[in-house]
Design a protein that fits this description.
Helices cover 64% and strands 2% of the residues. With 580 residues, the protein is mainly α. It has a domain at 265-475 and 484-528. The termini are far apart.
Length: 580
């Protein structure tokens, strides 16, 4: 059922007369959850809603207008509530919801819908991602998936309408990152029988009769052949013939219509703090200088004779640092994952129930994909979390980076944090299903630092790999603001990484393309990590021998992802309480 526009407006703006602040807030949460639930197809599908399982998100102009109007109404309601009038058990709810609503108003969907993709993913990879992460267990669920394949043309048509609006208004992605996106679309145009879109049907359980499995596969192949593949071909033609020639030549978000306000809002959204682009840029430069000194010390430890630049060449070219096969790379990633698993009980009292696996990035998206990524799992659907390792171009995937990469993407990084959040009880859905980048990525980057305590880094080269990854995130602060605020070229942005880290040239190229296409997101990592490290240092100084590192970690994660301002207040209160 789709909620009518008038109903949504009334829901968002409603507030009972003569209610207490607590009642007002809890009514707001209930209304927001109801509003959000209609759009949350994934949650509805997991609850058994076959109509939702057969649908793609409604990206029509009317639907996005309804969404933005609703979010603005909710934002007005939360602004009228004083958080100090709420009890302690509502403070996290308030902080997260206020952040979500303020962000949605500052950066409305009517704006972001015109750039619905980055260099490595977006609406054009949604179907492929869904196929790889959807588990079909019944005939009815299989039929819903087939119906979803048949609906793909309409979904692409809605997205194309937004791209056309972007062309009309000058609000497009830069032309410089578009060829890789076109290649991703083209890579999905395969013979129907080989399509990744058939994965849920291929994996049907043996409990379904063979005759039914054959029927469902035949219908799925037909849906791919007659609907999905023609839609992909049409999208590719539009993208290469219409969108790419009309896309902007500039790189920075500041050059977009209303670009200054847009980028300032993105800085606040992704850091969750009231920081300016200039402040972020300076913080990045300071961190680059600090980390560079640490790197020089590690080089001295190796006994290498030569300049810093010579050492980088050595790391990027010596065969000892690279796997000779995809299997070797996957085995190395799995080894470090198990090393981290072995240490987890020492550093956390609370461990999640959901497990994770180590998997290769799908071949169709690997060339432009990041070096690794975490794909969330779903215990209710029987899907483990996924530490996705990119095995494309082995000469660009150095082994000395794997320890830091593994703890970041798997445990105690993304998998641990997200799986813990998924287990939260008696909280609104937006608390378990949302993701605040500065918290999630800040935590994952902190765990690279924590990997030293866990004994994950076994050689000076692996320590240098960790510092390279820390430098990577520091250079992000410099490069993102450089591109989007100061108007830097790609070469200027890449220079920080090339001159100060051992990241491979391909990784640097892909990463800078990501920053170009996803302004502001790269600012979250270092911002969150620096706060968590500062809080830990202060806790250690204040509590001395009574400091319990596992309890500190558990308390950071026990309310899920929260804005950094709330996290700091919460953790400083915990430190004071522990000191009593």
């Amino acid at each position: 059922m789709r909620i009518a526009l008038a109903s949504i407006s009334a829901l968002a703006l409603a507030a009972p007369a003569f209610a207490t602040p607590v009642e007002d807030f809890r009514d707001l949460i209930a209304d927001y959850e109801a509003f959000n639930a209609e759009r949350n197809l994934g949650a509805r599908a997991r609850a058994g809603d076959l109509e939702a399982a057969a649908s793609w998100p409604d990206m029509s102009i009317e639907a996005i207008e309804r969404w933005d109007e609703g979010m603005a109404g909710f934002d007005a309601r939360i602004d009228a509530i004083e958080p100090n009038d709420l009890p302690a058990d509502e403070q996290a709810n308030y902080a997260v919801l206020a952040y979500e609503l303020d962000s949605a108003v500052a950066v409305p969907s009517m704006t972001t819908a015109m750039i619905p993709f980055t260099n490595d993913s977006g609406f054009h990879t949604t179907a492929s991602f869904a196929a790889l992460t959807t588990r079909v267990r019944t005939v009815e669920e299989a039929e819903a998936w087939i119906e979803k394949l048949n609906a793909l043309p309409e979904y692409f048509a809605q997205q194309q309408a937004w791209l056309e609006r972007g062309i009309e208004t000058g609000f497009t992605q830069p032309r410089a990152i578009l060829q890789g996106v076109a290649d991703q679309i083209e890579a999905q145009i395969t013979p129907a029988e080989e399509s990744e879109l058939l994965t849920p049907i291929r994996n049907l359980p043996e409990t379904i009769l063979a005759s039914e499995r054959e029927r469902l596969m035949a219908e799925a192949v037909q849906a791919v052949e007659t609907e999905a593949l023609p839609a992909l071909r049409e999208l590719h033609a539009f993208f290469t013939q219409s969108y790419m020639p009309a896309a902007r030549e500039t790189l920075g978000a500041r050059s977009l219509p209303g670009g200054e306000d847009f980028y300032r809002a993105l800085v606040r959204q992704h850091t969750t703090l009231d920081m300016t682009p200039e402040e972020v840029h300076q913080r990045g430069q300071d961190e680059v200088a600090r980390i560079r000194a640490d790197m020089e010390a590690v080089i001295a430890e190796t006994g290498f004779e030569g300049s810093f630049a010579d050492f980088l060449v050595f790391l990027r070219t010596d065969p000892q640092f690279y796997a000779e096969s995809e299997r070797e790379l996957m085995m190395a990633a799995s080894y470090f994952a198990k090393q981290a698993d072995d240490q987890m009980p020492r550093f956390f009292h609370h461990l999640p129930r959901l497990s994770y696996g180590v998997r290769p990035v799908p071949a169709a998206i690997a060339p432009n994909y990041t070096t690794a990524r975490y794909w969330p799992g779903d215990a209710g659907q029987g899907i483990a979390g996924g530490y996705m390792v990119n095995t494309y171009r082995l000469d660009q995937r150095p082994l000395y980076e794997l320890p830091a990469l593994t703890v970041h993407e798997a445990v105690p990084g993304h998998h641990h944090q997200i799986a813990i959040a998924q287990e939260l009880e008696n909280v609104p859905d937006f608390r378990t299903q949302g993701y605040i980048t500065a918290f999630g990525e800040g935590w994952a980057l902190y765990t690279e630092f924590l990997g030293q305590d866990m004994g994950i880094y076994e050689t000076p080269y692996q320590h240098f790999g960790r510092l390279t990854y820390e430098m990577w995130r520091a250079c992000r602060l410099v490069a993102d603001t450089g591109i989007h605020w100061y108007g830097w070229s790609r070469d200027e942005a890449e220079a920080c990484f090339l001159e100060n880290s051992a990241l491979s040239p391909l990784n640097i190229t892909n990463e800078v393309s990501r920053y170009i296409s996803w302004p502001g997101q790269a600012l979250a990592y270092k911002t969150g990590e620096l706060l968590i490290r500062e809080l830990r240092s202060d806790a250690e100084d204040e509590l001395g021998e009574s400091f319990d590192l596992a309890a500190f970690h558990d308390h950071i994660l026990d309310e899920g992802a929260v804005p950094l301002g709330y996290l700091e207040t919460k953790m400083r209160a915990w430190i004071a309480d522990q000191a009593q």
